[in-house]
Amino acid sequence: MTTAGGTAIERLDGPGAREALRALAEILCDCVEGGASVSFLAPLSIERAEKFWDKVAAAVERGESALLVARDAEGIQGTVQLVLSLPENQPHRGEVAKLLVHRRARRRGIAQTLMRAAEREAVAEGRTLLTLDTASAEAERVYQRLGWQLCGIIPGYALNPDRSSCDTAVYWKRVG
Ligand SMILES: CC(C)(COP(=O)(O)OP(=O)(O)OC[C@H]1O[C@@H](n2cnc3c(N)ncnc32)[C@H](O)[C@@H]1OP(=O)(O)O)[C@@H](O)C(=O)NCCC(=O)NCCS
Q1: Atom of ligand 1 nearest to the CA of 134
Q2: Distance between Cα 89 and ligand 1 center (Å)
Q3: Number of structural domains, the chain?
Q4: Mean pLDDT of all residues in 68-89
Q5: Which of 18, 73, 141, 161 is deepest in the core (most CB within 10 A)?
Q6: Position 12 in a domain
Q7: Average of pLDDT values for 19-31?
C-alpha cells in the first residue's frame, strides 16, 4: 500500500527488523528529543534506543509482535507495533504500541496510514479488540478520527522526557 506522498507501509520480519534497527532508533531518539512521552527519559542515546529495538526485533522473531514501518525514498519515516503476545484468556486482543513518526515526516497522514495498516494486520491475526494508551494529544486526534473510543484518562501516569508528569489516555477499538 502506498500513500499519496510515495510512502509504502511494510510489515517487517525478524531480519528486516534487525536491518532497520538504526533507522528505528533514530526515530525514537527524534521523538524523545521532541518531548514525546514514549517510555524514555532524555537524553536518549542512539545505543540505548538500539537496545530497545533489538528487543522488539527478538519479539518479532518469536511472533509476539507485528512491526510496521512507513518508508519513502529517504528511508523509514515512522513505525507502529501490534503486540500479539497476551495472556491466554485474551487471544482476541492486540495492543497497539509505539506509534512514532519522525519530525521530518509529520502532518502528512503517515500515522493514520500506519494505524489503518496495524488494524488490518490485527484482523489478519484473528484479533477483534485493540487497546492502547497514549500521552500525546496529536496521537489522540489520529485515534479518534479512526473511531477509537476513549476509556478515560489516568492522571500523572508517566513522565515526559524532561521528568515532568504527564497524563495518559486509554483507548479501545473493535476490529474485524
Ligand atoms: C502523534 C504522531 C504519531 C502523529 O504522526 P503524524 O504522521 O504527524 O500524524 P498524521 O499526519 O496522521 O496526523 C497529524 C495531523 O496532520 C494532519 N494531516 C494529515 N495529512 C495531512 C496533509 N496531507 N497535509 C496537512 N495536514 C495533514 C492531520 O489531520 C492531523 O491534524 P490534527 O493534529 O490537527 O488532528 C507524531 O506526532 C509523533 O510521532 N509524535 C511523537 C511520538 C508520540 O507521542 N507518539 C504517540 C505514542 S501513543
Answers
A1: 48
A2: 34
A3: 1
A4: 98
A5: 161
A6: yes
A7: 98
